[in-house]
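New to this. Help decode both lines:
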Amino acid sequence: QVLLVESGGGLVQDGGSLRLSCAPSTPNFSTFAMGWFRQAPGKEREFVAAIKWSDGSTRFADSAKGRFTISRDNAKNTAYLQMSNLKPEDTATYYCAADSRAWMHLYPRLRSAEYDYWGQGTQVTVSS
């Protein structure tokens, strides 16, 4: 079953913007953290940003700070990753993920293994 519906990837120029969306359908998702990870060809999957649904606390990778924002819309049951000033090195497959045990922690967690639900991935390509 597809529990996280992910969308918003595309092709943009250097300096452009994209907004990724993730709509969870998991039970009790309001107690989860929603995270974004990315994986470029030949590289390991890396953390980008995450937000706890309950209180909106966030964490960002150093590469994302100042350029990316993460948010969630309670009315739409959707989490967003707004990416601005994109660079070619941001090119990757981006994955939405959910951490069902986020309620045990003050802030979102950083490791892929700590997330137990994953979206299908959406490709982000930034041309130079």
The mean pLDDT is 96.
